[in-house]
Amino acid sequence: MRILIIGGGAAGGTAAQFARKTDRKANITIIDAEPYGQYSRCGLPYALRGDTTDERLVEFGPEWFERNGVEALYRYRVKSVDFSEKTVKIEGKDDIEYDRLVIATGARPWKPPIKGIENDGVFFLRTLDDLKGIREWIGDRKKVVIVGAGLIGLESAESFVRLGMDVAIVEFLSYPLPTMVDEDIGMEVEKILEKNGVKGYYSHEVTEVRGNPVSSVIIRNREDGSEIELEADIVVVSTGNSPNTEMFPDIEKGRRGHIRVNGRSETSVKDVFAAGDCTEYLDFVTGKYVPMGMGTMAVRQGMAAGTNAVGGSLEIQPFIGTRTTELFGMEIAGVGATAHVLKENDIDFVTGRFRGRDLPDYMDGREISVRVLASGEGRILGAQIIGRDASWRISMFAEAIIKKDTVRNLSLLETPYAPPIAPTVDPTSVACTIASMRLRRRK
Questions:
Q1: Per the confidence metrics, is the pTM higher than 0.90?
Q2: pLDDT, average across residues 413-427
Q3: DSSP-derived secondary structure letter, 36
């Protein structure tokens, strides 16, 4: 059996590994335009600041795949795919036939319509080559403007601060991490950024990059239309991604061009699977298809695609969006739907918000904020936490969402307690108690 995988990132590389684990005899080939093998895109901001190296970001290089019986065709670009003939056309190489195909072509940075965005000194941070380009450009330059306050934008902001640079962030929406947390948690993130020297311009958009090489950017206030000019000798654009799916016209896609897949990573075309940032998959809370864009899902979809492509059986659960980061020593985590998503989908909900400390009062713990969102029946739909150990606390909410558990049950959950570790009643339980009380008042 010939398994062909287009794309060697987290999804494609994982698909190859699980295809090989499931079938030791299958003929497996990866085609990838980059030369590095499977590496962590999420680690790029951390390599920029020096917490790791470019070499260590590569988790499975070309040699690893070759040693494990996977043919690795790197620095090759796919031109087209003929699903009916089961052939793939490649630049500079003969066509390749396949029995099963895995599409893991990922995504590319979305370029907003900004005048001068092609000028020297404007970068994206999506690939190892992007990282190398930014590092070479910085030199003795000191002023950076980051366009977009999502995860990569904010993690990059911290990296530039640690490199001794002046950092400004321009965000189209009214607070940072707008797709990850609600406004009240976002405002706390904003305070952390400000405290650490990051200037934030929210509800603003960049309209022009001036100078070639860049010398400044023009930003416009979306509320009153006023404009400001910010000095900049490097601009990093982090405004989301577009799927690399144009070469697959005969496959079912979503509104934004992502390939639609099921829990087995199967597409609408027989014997064709897809995984990672080029796909969209069912959201557990809303029941609607949403674009993928997280390393966790790329790996899980790759596991399913590779296993099922060689005749195994693996189905992953719907997407719940468990997410986390750390900014200037503070953990931020979220899972499930935000209030914006629930309103957009006409889903009735209540919230419970608690801001306290993560240790008993007499132990001088750190501040922690917990926000939980529940349906009118009390079922947990989402949660957000900012504070120490936010990531492990959010995992409890992730399990609760999948199990369709309620805020009442979690409010009564016996959580671990010891003075130097956690209070007698965990902040997560308090937030759930507040949400339960609001539900009772409705009745």
A1: yes
A2: 95
A3: S
